[in-house]
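Sequence, please.
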């Protein structure tokens, strides 16, 4: 016998979507939606900020499909910032701030960076002027990793392009020279970016990926409400996180409100999600 004191509650298994006549094809369907006023996702899905769900691997996969992952906060500030950075460096139309090496740095330092970010090459600069590029090809069969980068890098006949080069132009340049990376150099000889064949291929493989204005994958990150969380916010904003999620079990609390106000005042352009929220109040 039903008890009127308890309202009807449903789970996913209790609901069926009945098929009906359609006058469009699946390929014509647009399920994109706004996550915030300025961030549009191509699919209406985000992955939870839970330590068993979302770190950089899941966030990258979500962005590739058009959604977004929220990196959980059950880790150090430095580690969470690195996870966001991994997402941002996973793909880019043009990498505006590529990781670089100096000629006097050691090869083992370059190898550590390559492993950390899963990349295969690094521009080498003197100040902000490119003097070479170090790739996996230069390091094959190398035994002594204490050598300076200058001894192993490719420094002659560097292939470069100017800012504003299109992806189609870059593809032609890469193919003509049988290389995988292009240094973007401005008219003053300064390194302005990096274009890689891997990023071009990923862009073609995932045409609906959720990307920011610089062609990088969208990614969010969770923060708490304590004073220590402000350091977390600063570190995440330095990595160009797309969304800050003020993540608590009960979002309708003064500390959540205070944290949202602090973020808005300190970073006026920051995109903020706060919760959990269970009632209209």
């Amino acid at each position: 016998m039903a008890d009127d004191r308890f309202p009807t509650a449903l789970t996913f298994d209790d609901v069926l979507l009945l098929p009906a006549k359609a006058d469009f094809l699946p390929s014509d369907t647009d399920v994109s939606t706004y996550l915030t006023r300025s961030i549009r996702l191509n699919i209406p899905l985000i992955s939870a900020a839970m330590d068993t769900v979302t770190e950089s691997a899941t966030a990258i996969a979500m962005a590739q499909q058009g959604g977004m992952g929220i990196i959980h906060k059950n880790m150090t500030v430095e580690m969470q910032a690195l996870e966001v950075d991994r997402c941002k460096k996973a793909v880019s139309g043009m990498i505006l701030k590529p990781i670089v090496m100096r000629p006097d740095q050691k090869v083992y330092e370059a190898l550590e960076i390559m492993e950390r970010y899963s990349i295969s090459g690094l521009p080498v600069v003197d100040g902000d002027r490119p003097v070479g590029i170090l790739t996996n090809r230069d390091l094959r069969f190398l035994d002594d990793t204490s050598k300076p980068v200058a001894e192993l890098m490719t420094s002659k006949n560097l292939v470069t392009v100017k800012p504003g080069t299109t992806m189609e132009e870059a593809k032609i340049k890469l193919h003509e020279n049988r290389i995988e990376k292009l240094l973007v150099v401005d008219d003053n000889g300064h390194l302005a970016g990096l274009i890689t064949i891997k990023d071009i291929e990923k862009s073609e493989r995932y045409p609906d990926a959720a990307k920011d204005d610089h062609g990088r994958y969208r990614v969010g990150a969770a923060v708490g409400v304590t004073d220590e969380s402000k350091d977390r916010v600063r570190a995440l904003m330095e990595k160009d996180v797309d969304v800050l999620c003020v993540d608590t079990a009960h979002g309708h609390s003064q500390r959540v409100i205070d944290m949202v106000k602090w973020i808005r005042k300190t970073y006026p352009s920051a995109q903020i999600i706060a919760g959990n929220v269970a009632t209209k109040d």
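DSSP finds nine helices and twelve strands in the chain.
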